[in-house]
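Design request, tokens follow.
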């Protein structure tokens, strides 16, 4: 029997699925995060792929971290600094600058990638040492202050 002569049954569940696919693809243009959370596996896969591309494009450079205290400047490896927690990293920085026996309180400030537009306009912000592991990839410059 020919296919065109067969009776056609409309599957409402299939129609809903197709509508959901089209809606999910429209979301793609507005929000890939919402797309990644979709019930549709194809759309969710596309959203996760887009998130991976965006994350890869926004990763800061693996350049060393420049640390300054007073008139001294030192470059330290980003990988080594990322391997430590915040408190150990601060003790390590103090030891590099001979500040382990300092009696005055010391604070750590940083310039974060994307915040400074040019060298004259860089803004230092105080760091949360508890969130050190999250912040290290985005640190451009560190400063120890008293």
């Amino acid at each position: 029997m020919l296919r065109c002569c067969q009776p056609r049954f409309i599957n409402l569940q299939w129609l809903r699925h197709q509508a959901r696919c089209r809606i999910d693809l429209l979301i793609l243009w507005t929000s890939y995060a919402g797309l990644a959370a979709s019930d549709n596996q194809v759309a969710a896969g596309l959203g996760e792929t887009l998130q991976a591309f965006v994350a890869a494009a926004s990763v800061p450079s693996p350049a060393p971290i420049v640390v300054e205290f007073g008139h001294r400047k030192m470059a330290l490896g980003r990988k080594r600094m990322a391997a430590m927690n915040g408190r150990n990293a601060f003790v390590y920085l103090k030891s590099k600058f001979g500040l382990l026996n300092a009696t005055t309180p010391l604070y750590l400030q940083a310039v974060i990638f994307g915040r400074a537009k040019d060298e004259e306009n860089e803004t230092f912000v105080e760091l949360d040492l508890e969130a050190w592991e999250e912040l290290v990839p985005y640190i451009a410059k560190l400063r120890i202050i008293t």
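Comment from the thread starter after seeing the answer: thanks! Residues 16 and 75 are 58 Å apart (CA to CA).
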